[in-house]
Amino acid sequence: MREVKIENQLRLKTERLGGKCLKFSSPGNNGVPDRIVLLDGGCYFVELKAPGKTLRPTQRYVKKEFEKLGFTVTVIDSLPGVEAFINEIHTTRIPEDKL
Fold first, then answer.
1. In what order do the strands lie in the sheet with 20-23?
2. Rounded mean pLDDT of 74-92?
């Protein structure tokens, strides 16, 4: 499975729940997470990977720097990972037709 399929699923599920899943680009700052998810009053950083792929050294460094600032960077590498992430951050039960 390709990373883009996982990324599209994250975007679709977030938008179905009324949230935003924004592509994160920070010129001159390599290794920033792929997406910022805004849902239910929360702001979440997400790095997407193809199954079995790991963070590059720059991404590991940025993740640690964000964590020092009190933020979490979630790494998702599967469709079940998308569902688990959405269920974790969404404050109400997700209706079956929205999954």
1. 20-23, 35-39, 42-48, 73-76
2. 92
